[in-house]
Amino acid sequence: MTAQILDGKALADELRASFKARVAALTQKGHRPGLVVILVGEDPASQVYVRNKVSACEAAGLYSEKIVYPADVAPAVVLQKIAELNAAPNIHGILVQLPLPPHFDEKAVLEAISAAKDVDGFHAENVGALAQGNPRFIPCTPYGVVKLLEKSGIELAGKEAVVIGRSNIVGKPMALLLLNAGATVTVCHSRTRDLAFHTRRADVLVAAIGKPRFVTAEMVKPGAVVIDVGINRLPPEAGGKLCGDVDFEGVKEVARALTPVPGGVGPMTITMLLANTIEAAEREAGR
Ligand code: NDP
After folding, report:
1. Residue 282's closest CA among 95, 13, 29, 18?
2. What was the pLDDT predicted at 1?
3. CA-wise closest residue to 135 among 287, 286, 284, 272
4. How far is the CA of 231 from the centre of ligand 1 (A)?
5. How far is CA 30 from the centre of its chain?
6. CATH 3.40.50.720 domain extents, the chain
7. Is the N or the C terminus of the chain less surrounded, counting Cβ atoms within 10 Å?
8. How far apart are CA 28 and CA 112, in angstroms?
9. Is 4 a catalytic residue?
10. Region 129-154: what's the mean pLDDT?
11. Percentage with pLDDT > 90 across the chain
12. What is the pLDDT of residues 199-215, one digit of tens each?
């Protein structure tokens, strides 16, 4: 069996094209969606992510602004800026790029963002709403995964779903979304005994681990749908290319459907950030 490749790039392009009319309508009414991305420090990967987010906003017609602080900035300075942005009528989304330097209390920073502008969906209020099955802002990566599954016609109700990873950014919200969609969900992590026992039972397997090619064909049930969230940079001696948490070549011979890296979940993540920001502006316009 050779798996169907779930093309996140194509769906992301389609969705982004469909956003243009919504953005134009909001802009005409004086509510052009606006996103501010705050970056603290000079982590190269974070710089790339922030640049991509800002340029995706611009391409879709949103207003966007990047605010960069040196790594040793006082947390009070960032919190003050967040307070200003919370009150700014032209800003609908505020995103603080993670990770923050160690002298920051990450949770306090995320909680300082108004829940109504928390387009990353990390504020406790938004996490709680998702846990209750009544989401307001859904974290962008798992939101993108669910959209990709939905658009690919993959039914989740009644399925065995296994998520590897329990981070607040990916694994936990992913599990909640699958549960809300009617799947029977198992969450695995580094303390899980006999990981392969769980993964081999999965009709839908989501890998969000951060270890290159960790999920091998032997760990996958024949005919499963496999979603690879991982983004890993291989060392220069191995070619320096990006690869996922799934051994793509091996698993594509076993799975029914599989996301590639790059071109799978990654483009969907930024797309759902745009979707959340536009939705925030639509809510504001409707008030
Ligand atoms: P974290 O490092 O926060 O979480 C990794 C998770 O994997 C943890 O829950 C950890 O368990 C678990 N894990 C680690 N080793 C094992 C193991 N041997 N067996 C089972 N579980 C294990 O990472 P993130 O959730 O932030 O990201 C995961 C991956 O997704 C990364 O590659 C990241 O780059 C990528 N990513 C991709 C995005 C996209 O847009 N496509 C967006 C965000 C992330 P424990 O909790 O016990 O430590």
Report:
1. 29
2. 72
3. 272
4. 10
5. 29
6. 140-266
7. C
8. 31
9. no
10. 98
11. 97
12. 999 999 999 999 999 99
Mutating to test ligand 1, I would choose from 170, 199, 213 the residue with most ligand atoms within 8 A of its C-beta, which is: 170
- Ligand 1 centroid – CA 30 distance (Å): 40
Task: Confirm if 266 and 247 have CB atoms less than 8 A apart.
Answer: no
* Domain at 27-116, CATH from 3.40.50.2300, 3.40.50.10860, 3.20.20.70, 3.30.230.10: 3.40.50.10860
Residues with CB under 6 A from ligand 1: 141, 164-167, 169-171, 188-192, 195, 208-211, 229-232, 265-266, 269
**Residue 20 pLDDT exceeds 90:** yes
Question: In terms of Cα–Cα distance, which of 112, 81, 96, 101 is closest to 49?
Answer: 96
Q: What is the mean pLDDT of residues 236-264?
A: 96
- Ligand 1 centroid to Cα of residue 101, in Å, is 19
269 Cα nearest atom in ligand 1: 40
Per the annotation, the verdict on 97 as an active-site residue is yes
Quick one: pLDDT band at residue 164, thresholds 50, 70, 90? very high
**pTM (2 d.p.):** 0.97
- The verdict on whether 28 is a catalytic residue reads no
Given 7, 53, 117, 118, the catalytic residue: 53
| Location of structure tokens 């399925």 | 159
Segment 255-264 mean pLDDT: 97
Q: Find all residues with CB under 8 Å of 249, minimum gap 6, and list them.
A: none
- Best residue among 198, 229, 265, 270 to mutate for probing ligand 1's pocket (most ligand atoms within 8 Å of CB) is 229
Atom from ligand 1 closest to the CA of residue 209: 7
Ligand 1 centroid distance, CA of 160 (Å): 20
pLDDT at 158 over 80: yes
**CATH 3.40.50.10860 domain position(s) in the chain:** 27-116
Domain 140-266 class in CATH: alpha beta
